[in-house]
Design brief:
The chain is an alpha/beta fold and 558 residues long. The protein is built from 22 helices and 15 strands. A five-stranded parallel sheet has the order 7-6-5-11-12, sandwiched between helices. Strands 1-2-4-3 form a four-stranded antiparallel sheet. The two termini are 36 Å apart.
């Protein structure tokens, strides 16, 4: 239990004592103690903690909530060393202003835990798999992939910090129609580059310049010798070359973006192992399939879908949906208690049918969480950037990293709820000013390091300092914010919301800048200077830990 949780628990006990004492004194009657909340108010002017206990007792006590609140306040333990002042606000909230002494205890804890500060044991080692990006290996990574990469990687970091056993996985779509179309595209570009300029390009082919580049590299290696091969064999050889090349580029690009996976899972293995046929047979045994038009259908309307979906086409080839069901069955069979997918918003229609398929197979679909991301729009000079200057198509992840850097790209993608559309301002991301949120946060960390370095001495230890000298409101506010980190990580993990960490980082940086502007650290008062250096170091640790979770660097100088 972290310090904030300890204080919350102690305060809850004192509130319950106050409620029980008020009842014993005949101030009001009730049958059951309400499940009230003790929380940190968003507005610091409302105290350190607040509770809604009085409003929850209204029906039982048959009194106005403010009158109940007053009775509770009058009955709180008089000998409390925690509560300094209490106020009743609004319809009956009780706001608690605590003695500043409780916050000093956090500083030696932060110092001792260092890089582990903020960690909580919410997950108790539960196995969680996060699958994200999983772009088709038929082209370059784009903005949607980049947002998914930043979100998935930071979510994995967050859940690990919250006590989960996390595996990051990439699903390689190396089978199915997209691979057939890749082969046809390569066939066309290969022949065209060899001089047959009128060779028709497939209607559903991939038009990216990277396909032309791949065809040129194949020609550089084998010339026109592939023309002597049967068409299917020729295309399979070109597909194998392209997949190796594309996957290598994807891995390299994601690594540069700070994203490295634990598992790369090939869709082809599901076909080769018979896993797809196995899951189709299982669904058939459960009465969930039927034949129509020489195809095998799954009764997805029973999951709330508008129409049933095909599992096996009339030509005997499984659909992507069948492979996806087999893949998700494989995930749970590997022992993951919770499976998280991060998909683009255009996949929203697939959510219910995938969860329904898991229920049909006997798994609990509540253990499958699918997060949907909205679109990203790039802006430059106030105008929407629709195409890449280099490829003539979409802006790639590699181009974005080259333009604004990994840190700005990741921070901008993470700082908004994935449910919302993201307008990515390229000009703002490159600004070195307080208007740029990632620069603002990183500058706070660099400023902290410059203060600590300016002493020319090791940072004082909390145990050797009189921390009660930290009495200014800016000092106390900063300590409280540092103390909030474990709870913030727990809340963000429960909600699967890394964007909360970006918001916390901005708030912590703001409080540090405010502290820096109002409290001279390197003062002639040695005792006060040492206490403030302990606080500055704690702020450094908290800020660095949050940036690390976001996959953003914490520079020592800027």
């Amino acid at each position: 239990m972290n310090l904030v949780e300890q204080v919350t628990a102690q305060l809850r006990n004192e509130i319950e004592e106050g409620i029980a004492e008020a009842k014993a004194a005949g101030r009001f009657e009730y049958m059951d103690m309400p499940a009230f909340v003790v929380e940190v108010p968003k507005d610091k002017s409302h105290g350190d903690f607040a509770t809604n206990a009085a409003m929850l007792l209204t029906k039982q006590a048959k009194m106005k909530p403010r009158d109940i609140a007053q009775a509770i306040v009058d009955s709180l333990p008089k000998e409390s060393k925690l509560i300094e002042k209490v106020e009743i606000a609004g319809p009956g909230f009780i706001n608690f202003y605590l003695s500043p002494n409780w916050v000093y205890d956090i500083l030696p804890i932060v110092e001792a835990q260092d890089t582990a500060y903020g960690s909580v044991d919410l997950g108790h080692g539960e196995k969680v798999q996060i699958e994200f990006v999983s772009a088709n290996p038929t082209g370059l990574l784009h903005m949607g992939n980049a947002r998914g990469g930043a979100l998935g990687d930071s979510l994995a970091n967050l859940l690990k910090m919250a006590g989960y056993d996390v595996t990051k996985e990439y699903y390689i779509n190396d089978a199915g129609n997209q691979i057939v179309n890749l082969g046809l595209s390569l066939e066309a570009r290969y022949r065209q580059e060899l001089g047959d300029v009128d060779y028709p390009f497939p209607e559903k082919g991939y038009h990216g310049k990277d396909i032309i580049d791949t065809a040129k590299r194949i020609i550089a290696e084998v010339g026109d010798s592939y023309l002597q091969l049967p068409e299917e064999e020729r295309q399979q050889k070109m597909i194998a070359t392209a997949l190796e090349e594309k996957l290598s580029a994807i891995k390299s690009g994601l690594h540069e973006f700070g994203v490295d996976y634990d598992v790369w899972f090939s869709e082809t293995t599901l076909h080769e192992s018979g896993a797809i046929q196995e899951v189709v047979d299982l669904l058939t045994e459960k009465g969930m399939t039927y034949e129509k038009d020489d195809a095998l259908w799954l009764k997805t309307t029973s999951f709330g879908d508008e129409k049933d979906e095909v599992l096996i086409r009339s030509n005997g080839i499984p659909t992507y949906y069948a492979a996806d069901i087999a893949y998700h069955k494989n995930k749970f069979d590997r022992g993951f208690k919770r499976v998280i997918n991060i998909w683009g918003a255009d996949h929203h229609g697939h959510v219910a049918r995938m969860k329904g398929a898991m229920d049909a197979l006997g798994y609990d679909s509540e253990n499958l969480t699918i997060m949907l991301m909205q679109l990203v729009r790039l802006y430059q000079g106030g105008e929407v950037v629709r195409m890449s200057k280099r490829t003539g198509q979409y802006v790639t992840l590699q181009e974005l990293i080259e333009d604004v850097g990994k840190d700005a790209a990741r921070y901008f993608f993470i700082m908004r709820n994935p449910d919302s559309h993201l307008d990515f301002d390229l000009d703002l991301a490159k600004q070195q000013s307080s208007d740029n949120p990632v620069y603002y946060v990183q500058y706070a960390h660099a400023r902290i390091n410059s203060i600590l370095a300016a002493t020319g001495m090791p940072t004082p230890k909390a145990a050797d300092c009189d921390l009660t000298l930290l009495k200014e409101e800016a000092e106390l506010a900063l300590i409280r914010k540092i103390a909030d980190l474990p709870n913030e990580i727990a809340y963000a993990a429960e909600e699967l919301a890394p964007y909360r960490l970006a918001r916390y980082a901005t708030d912590l940086a703001t409080m540090f800048h405010s502290f820096y502007n109002s409290c001279r650290v390197l003062t002639d008062d040695v005792a006060l200077k040492n206490a403030r250096l302990v606080l500055v170091n704690a702020a450094r640790i908290a800020l660095c830990n949050v940036l690390t979770l976001l996959g953003v660097s914490a520079p020592e100088r800027m």
